[in-house]
Amino acid sequence: MKDLLMAQHWWCSPSRGHAEGPMCKRAAITEAIATSTEAAEKTRLVEKLKQSIQAGQIDAQGLDATNPERHRMMEAWCDSTDEANNVAKKGPCIRAANHRSFVKRRETLLTFWCEEQGQAGSPKCAQMEFGQKIQNTDSGAERKRLAADFKAKQPSNVEDQVKEETKQMMHAVCASSHGKTELFKSTCSRIHHEL
Question: Which residues of the chain are under the pLDDT cut of 70?
Fold first, then answer.
C-alpha cells in the first residue's frame, strides 16, 4: 500500500495535470482530513468527502484494483525516470507490467476467440467483454452497477462453463501463431506441460 501511496503522490502532484481527477481529488480530501487538527474542520471535510462520493465526483475507494485511473497511474509512474523511487518501484511495477500484459492478452483473445473463432456471446466472451468494460470505466459507482448487472444475468452454472471454455480457448490460441508470441509464450508453455 505504501508503494501505491507513493505512486499516487507522484501522480497527483499539480505539475502532472491529474489533480482534478477523481482519485487525486479523493486523495487531497483524505489527506486534509488526516492532517486537520480541529474537530469542526475534520467534520466539515468528512462531510465534503461523503457528498463528493454521493455525487459521483470521486470514488468510495480510490485505489481499488478495478480503478482504471490507478492502472494508468501505475504505468506512468513505472515508466517515469524518477530515480528517487526506483527501489520502491520494483514490486509494484512488476505487478503493473503483469496487468498490462493481461489486458493485451484479453484484447487478443477477444479478437481471436470471440470474433475469428466465432464464439461471440459465449460465457467466456461475455466475461472478457465485461472485464474490458470495467477497465474502461472510470467511475467506481458505474463499475459497481456494471458488476451487479453482469452478475444478475449469469446462469447458476456459469463458472463451470467459463472454466471449460477457457481451456478450449487457451488450447486453440496456443495452437495458433499467437501461442508463439512473447505475449502468450509463458502461458502456452505451462499449458503444453499440463497435457
Answer: 1, 62-63, 83-85, 192-195
Decide: helix, strand or coil at residue 160. Answer: helix
Alpha-carbon span 88 to 75, nearest angstrom = 14
Residue of 120, 110, 123 lying closest to 155 (CA atoms):
123
Closest CA to 74 of 165, 4, 154, 155: 4
Angle at 135 between CA 129 and CA 138, to 5 degrees: 130
Question: Is-contact 137 146, C-beta < 8 A?
Answer: yes
CB 71 within 8 A of CB 23: no
DSSP 42-89: HHHHHHHHHHHHHTTSS-SSTT-TT-HHHHHHHHHHHHS--GGGHHHH
The helix (run of H) or strand (run of E) holding residue 192 is: helix 182-194
Give the model's pLDDT for residue 169: 97
pLDDT tens-digit profile of 82-123?
Answer: 766 677 788 888 988 999 999 999 999 999 999 999 999 999
3-state helix, strand, coil in the chain (%, to 5): 75, 0, 25
Cα–Cα distance, 43 to 45 (Å, whole number): 5
Residue 192: what pLDDT? 57
